[in-house]
Protein: peptide-methionine (R)-S-oxide reductase
Organism: Pseudarthrobacter phenanthrenivorans
Amino acid sequence: MSIFGNSIFGHNATDLSTTAPEAAPAGSPAAKVAKTDAEWREELTPEEYHVLRQAGTERPFTGEYWDTHTAGVYQCRACGAELFTSNEKFDSHCGWPSFWAPLAEGNVRYIHDRTLGMDRVEVRCAACDSHLGHVFEGEGYGTPTDQRYCINSVSIRLVPAEDPQVSGPGDDS
Ligand SMILES: [Zn+2]
C-alpha cells in the first residue's frame, strides 16, 4: 500500500497559484505579458503602437481584415494570444472586423470608456493589456449574442486555418 506518499503531493495544486507569470509559455491566453513602453515602441510599427498601446482607432474600411472571410484564428498583434476566430466573425459593414464573441471569455478584458464624450466598453487583450477596440450591444445584428466586438485590424493578426505556418510576407490576396 502506498497511500502515505500521496497526501504529500496533494498540495502541489495549490502551489500553482504562485507560479511566476513569466513561467507561462508564450502565446498562452493565460500568460501575462508585461513590457515597458520603450519595448512596445521598438517591437510594434508606429500604427500598431498607436492603436494597441495608445487606444487609437484605425480609419474604417482601411484595415486589413474588415472584409476578410478566411477561416482561422485571430491573435493579438502585440503578444500572440488567441483572441477571436473566424467562426464568430460577421459582416457588420461598419468598416472594422466585427465578432459577436471572443474566442473565450477571459482572453479579453473590458474597461468602461467615457472618452470622446461617448459611453463605450473598451476591449483589451487580457494577456498584455493592449487595446483592441470596443464592444457594442443591442444593435440588432442577427447574431447569437447581439453584440459587436468592433476590433481594429491592426490590433490582431489572422492565422489562416489551412496554413498555420505563414511562410513569408508576400501574401497578396
Ligand atoms: Zn496581447
